[in-house]
Amino acid sequence: MPKKKKIVVKIGSSLLANDENLTLRYAFINGLLSDLAALKKEGHDVILTSSGSVALGLNMVGKRPEDAGILDKQAAAACGQPLLMNAYRQIASEHNMDVAQMLVTVDDMEDRRRFLNIKNTMLRLFENDILPIINENDSVATRDLRVGDNDRLSAKVAQMVDADLLVILTSVEGLYDRDPSEPNAKFIAEINDVSEHLESTTAISALGSGGMLTKMQAANMAQNAGVETIIAEGIIERPISSVLENERRFTRCLVTGKTASPLMVWLSNRLQVSGTLVVPNAVAAALVAGDCGVGRHDVISIQGDFTKGDVLHVYDEEGAEVARGLTNFSSEETMLMARHLDMNVEDLIGYKTKSDVIGIENLLVLEENHLPLDAPEDDLKLVIPA
């Protein structure tokens, strides 16, 4: 028997729903669940991250993908999710497999306590030989509070459960150095540095919210968590095991470098920016050198409406992201402390503390293998006067 592995499988809307009539592709689901059942019988723990609820519900709200607004998509998700789970449940039962549904939002994945609660639930499902099926809760997600693509969600899940492998199934065989429809496009079988391939990943399918770009971002997140990623075509027969047994070609994204602690991995893999700080270049250099955290006197500007315990992204004066860390204060408290350096902290915020805005023990310096996030261009909360 092969070594037992934790495997996270991600499938997108374009594999689950017919492009024209937006109905379920039952043959694909049957082939997928048959293969997952076989992997479970071999002793592997498997998680399925599934899109599809919005695409399957659009007919019920009278919309096409290209015409649907955010409210239409929320309503479509509420209609489509029961259809999707009913299909999974019925077909899984034919393969003697139990399934469980878990709907999550970006807040669930970015909040440390909720993140760990979800992890514990999935581990208990493993103990009971149940297949977790995870999707973003699109019926309540908004434009500002959504994971945005299930590729990166699947990478967060892989990080969460310390997976050995993330398999992303898509409509093409893997990554090419340009649009695969172009002449002389070359297939890329193995990737060490994801950032080298971002320029060739701009296409997005009609039904999906991501594209090859988000798959590369997911692969980078997985790499930083010590998880290997495979990107392969979602064929009907044995879509996963045929890849694991090297029976067809695919793109493999290798794990690079030493994996950090679980807390630091969680800090590094963000789905959205909760808040930002801009610090002087000299302070940014000290952060990179590991000499200090971020004190209130280091703050040039603040963005975002954050609370204590949120992850802040720290930028230098040129706009380059240098670090991420857990804040000890809310945005309002940070604003008060940074604008009134001549006043006692206790008088400003109402309680005693000697903490930095971000302590050095809760600060992650970004390395070359982390893809930086651009600072938001709006919602400027504070610029500290010189």
From TrEMBL:
Pfam families xref list: AA_kinase (PF00696), PUA (PF01472)
GO cellular component: cytosol
Gene3D superfamilies assigned to the protein according to its UniProt record, in alphabetical order: Acetylglutamate kinase-like (3.40.1160.10), PUA domain (2.30.130.10)
First-tier enzyme category under EC: transferase
Residues reported to bind substrate: 51, 138, 150
Tree of life domain: Bacteria
MF GO annotations: ATP binding; glutamate 5-kinase activity; RNA binding
Entry-linked HAMAP family: ProB (MF_00456)
Role played: Catalyzes the transfer of a phosphate group to glutamate to form L-glutamate 5-phosphate.
UniProt-recorded name of the protein: Glutamate 5-kinase
Organism encoding this protein: Yoonia rosea
Gene giving rise to this polypeptide: proB
